[in-house]
Write a structure and sequence with these properties.
Helix content is 21%, strand content 48%. The protein has helices at 18-27, 95-104, 153-167, 179-184; strands at residues 6-7, 9-14, 29-43, 56-63, 66-76, 82-92, 107-123, 126-133, 137-144, 172-175, 191-193.
């Protein structure tokens, strides 16, 4: 995650994954391989799903027995394209107790995303993640991890798409909905091709 709790990230599908994998193996550092179960929640009194595109997410993550809680609030441009998110994340020691807290304050679970496999790489100012999502397929996430205190979100998003094109991934298809919406409401997802 980038400094100052700002996350600049794109989530895409690419036409050709092999050129990217080859590039990463030669030029990037593999940070790890894992699987993750992400469970998304919303308050009963203020349903995050009432607005589309969804601006807020509250997530509990199980990454091989390591647990985190994350809140994200997305910022969109005039075309409902995600620019960045305010993101707050911390470690959870006991996920069962966190679930009890959620139940006690009237939070309900709305979606589960099963990342069967996840490879995480670091290349220059990018964290590059390759996800295989149960029921959805393979995705690439690029997150800006540079040190700029006031990055130009649109410029960085365009540079990330250009990076994928330059590596030889072919057609890049992006959506601004996120995995939980893709799981729950696939008919709502808008796709953009580059």
């Amino acid at each position: 995650m980038a400094a100052n709790n700002k996350e600049i990230e794109i989530q895409v599908q690419v036409e050709h994954i092999k050129p990217l994998l080859g590039f990463l193996k030669k030029n990037a550092e593999l940070i790890g391989e894992s699987s993750q179960i992400d469970r998304y929640f919303t308050p009963q009194h203020r349903n995050f799903l009432d607005k589309y595109p969804t601006e807020e997410w509250l997530r509990l993550r199980d990454a091989g027995g390591k647990f985190t809680i994350t809140y994200k609030k997305w910022k969109y441009d005039e075309n409902d394209q995600g620019l960045y998110a305010d993101e707050y994340e911390t470690i959870v020691q006991d996920i069962n107790q966190m679930e009890n807290i959620f139940k006690s304050v009237d939070m309900k679970e709305v979606a589960t995303v099963n990342k069967i496999s996840r490879q995480t790489w670091i290349y220059k100012d990018y964290e590059v993640v390759i996800d295989n999502i149960k029921g959805l397929g393979q995705f690439v996430e690029l997150e800006y991890c540079g040190k700029s205190k006031s990055p130009d979100h649109k410029k960085i998003n365009a540079q990330m798409i250009k990076f994928l094109k330059d590596v030889g991934c072919g057609k890049v298809t992006q959506n601004h909905s996120g995995y939980p919406i893709m799981v729950m409401f696939p008919e709502k997802v808008k796709y953009y091709e580059f």
